[in-house]
Write a structure and sequence with these properties.
The complex is a heterodimer of chains A (about 200) and B (about 110). Chain A has about 200 residues and is mainly α. Chain A has two domains: about 10-45, no CATH class; about 45-190, Nitrile Hydratase, Chain A, CATH 3.90.330. Chain A contains eleven helices and four strands; from the N terminus they run αααααββααααββαα. In chain A, the strands form two sheets. Chain A has a two-stranded parallel sheet with strand order 1-4. A two-stranded parallel sheet of chain A has the order 2-3. Chain B is mostly helical and about 110 residues long. Chain B has a domain at about 25-100. Helix content of chain B is about 55%, strand content about 0%. Chain B contains four helices and no strands. Chain B has helices at about 30-40, 50-65, 70-85, 90-100. In chain B, helix 1 packs parallel to helix 3 and helix 2 (about 50-65) crosses helix 3. Classes of the chains: A mainly alpha (about 200), B mainly alpha (about 110). The interface between A and B is large, with 59 and 64 residues.
Amino acid sequence: MSPVPAPSDLPVELRTEALESILVEKGLVDPAVLDKFIKTYAEDVGPLNGAKVVARAWTDPEYKARLLEDGTAAIAEMGFKGPQGECIVVLENTPTRHHLVVCTLCSCYPWPVLGLPPSWYKDPAYRARAVREPRALLAEFGLELGPEVEIKVFDSSSEVRYMVLPERPAGSEHLSEEELVPLVTREAMTGVAKAKPPA
Amino acid sequence: MSGTLLQLDVEGPAAPPRSNGELVFAEPWESRAFGLAMALHDGGLFEWEDFRQELIKAVARAEAAGGEFSYYRCWLEALQTLLASSGLVDPAAVESLAAELACRPAGHDHQH
């Protein structure tokens, strides 16, 4: 009789496949619902939603005021809501204050506006160092901030998800709301970068 | 030298993405594991906060164990722990089926 492999000996993709198969067989998961969730988060929900929110805030002062007052409601106004978006707080970067977002415990992330978290956001090094030495970490991301800039780190809790409203880049004054959207990256909305300068 | 402190990949699979269009799942199984948790929660089979607490524990265990960190491995482990504790899925059944799947002939999913 061949030995039964220890759990860790089996490839994770087979364990996932086995779990899916059992859940479907038990009727606990509907394959159509499963596929819908995967497709939605892999293809439809992404940082483009957040970029649209930022571009609107840059061009519409009243929207920006609403966004900073109640992020969840202002984001829902644009049609973006869903799991992990129940309470979104928007943090405004200024020339003297820079915000950085992290979830030290489990990589919580505002899905409706940013999609699913990128690999670096979930990395233990990022999660530990964002809190311990944010200035050095940001420098390694290529963002050197002067001593006059205060860095505020926001650690997501079970209730609140944070999104950064980056500064509108210099030289973008002539651009329309639509033209501003591509300048807003996921990195800018988590605070590891600034919005891109116009081409 | 900051390079000694930099544990984030610059070029590799954990590299900071540079565009808005990056794929969120590195491998197909990650998307399946993600979708299973979403679908089960959507079906009312667990509270998201309960899953999150298991995920926090799984992440902490993985970090304590060291080695290459995989977020979705933690995700799958959290999901299995939760399903086991609620009596919905016996982990031994998953292992046993996974072992069966491992014995499929090579190329089973290809039409050659």
